[in-house]
Amino acid sequence: MTKNVLGAVVVYGVLVLATVLTLIPVVWMVSTSFKTPEHVFTYPIEWLPDGLHWENYVTALTARPFGLYLLNSIVQSTVSMVISVVLCSAAGYSFAHFRYRGQDVMFIIVLSTLMIPFEVIAVPLYLQIHLWGWDNTYPGLILPTGLTAIGIFIMRQYLLGIPSDFIESARIDGGSEIQILTRVIWPLSTPALSAVAIFTFVYVWNSYLWPLLVVNQDSMRTLPLGMALFANELTVSYNRIMAVAVFGALPLVLLFLALQRNFVRGIALTGLREG
Amino acid sequence: MNAHRRFHLRYQTRIALWGFVFALPAVLYLLVFSIFPMLQALLLSFTRYDLMSPPEFVGFANYVALLSEENFLHSLGITLIYVFGTVIPVWFFSFGVALLLTKVRVFAGGWRTLLFIPTILPLLSVTLVWKLLFNLRGVVNAILLPFGVAPIAWLTDARYANLALIITSWWHATSYYMILFLAGLQAVPIVYQEAAALDGANAWQRLRHVILPLMWPTIVLVVVLSIINGFRTFALQYVMTKGGPGNATEIVPLLIYKTAFAFLDMGGATAMSVVYFLLILAFSLVQLRIMQGNRND
Fold first, then answer.
1. What's the whole-model pTM score?
2. DSSP B49
3. Homologous superfamily, domain A65-226+257-270
């Protein structure tokens, strides 16, 4: 009995410690964003702000076109998500339920791209995009990172679990192949589809290296670029930088709150990220 | 009969054609935006190319230069320190926290959500907050002060900058791999643990002989993924230290970036990329080998 109590104390003690360490930066970010500059660096630490100075948000978010950055990030992430969901589901379906000549070669091509980290091809990719005159354009920003190859595997693995009978009977009912994909396969694979969708959205939302290379016009900057640029201005005080950090975090936090279950499963299914 | 067979064949061919058509867009996409650039990197790595004049073939000169150049070897060393300094503790942190989460009964979902927060935050928000925390007058120093630690210039002192980045990554990555471990742990049937407990196995024995073997696929996944993800770091260093002070935190992706776009040395940058690619590939293959071999014991 005492052993159990001791065990529980250790379990909850360590858990509380881990949670406190996890929350300190988050609390500090939110708290600082509401402070006046004089209260940012104080000793002893002031965990709570000296008031809710919303004007930090107003001055920070109007100092640069953050609305535009946000819009660019939303367009970039959403289009990539659509590209990935459509192409990965079609290819995953093809690899799971069809047999044709050249299939092995195509599968090997997909496999090998998984071994190529984006950082390694960034330079030649940029030269290519530059050659096409795609600097500072949406296609240039979006297309090179728009398709997450791992999504093809996730879809394939998932669709292997769907019996071919479903597909055959849909064919006998006279469904065209495209209809079978959109009306049979998609509804049957929503967990995998949402995993690919969420993963791609978050992955692209966090992307930094590629936008940094391909964008140098302010109107085309994405949120991460704009945030870094704002933070690097020497005259900016930390309360405003934290206001921007909170602002930049809100879209993903809202997405998480809206899709909690799928979100966690998406992470567990995919597991890739930058950094 | 013959007509029927011909129809059947045509039917099969038509379906096979559709299969090809479904896979084609994704495969072409990857050829254009992944395979082709990789081949181009390989080609460019044998040239001298500064964007002004056309590429000029120089054989292995860029590779020879890399191995004799201190910058690159320094960056490789820094990268290895960053990657392994990050991932090894993170394996234990994330597995430990996930294990604890399976033990709690009070507020179970709440702990998980709170511990998951770092994963939901965008990387840029994370870097900006930690830059503030590691400020000379920041929270980290304020917490250490009562323990008699004099304030440290974490991000501008070459002795501490890498440690500061590694600590930031601990914080950010632990939460993430915790989710992967938690998913794996929840798949371990509870009856196995109960049976082992009835047989008199203590907590350590249950972990060693029941949980770990069943968790092995998840462990392999986390180890391989975390190392690959570690090698792919860029924004963390770029935003928090710009590779500095000096080049103290200049990890390879940052050096590639600078070589290409600050020094306009495309040959050198792509040669680094190719070497880096081979290094990551070798790490992944060796790991998979070792860990798969381990499993067969």
1. 0.90
2. -
3. MetI-like (1.10.3720.10)
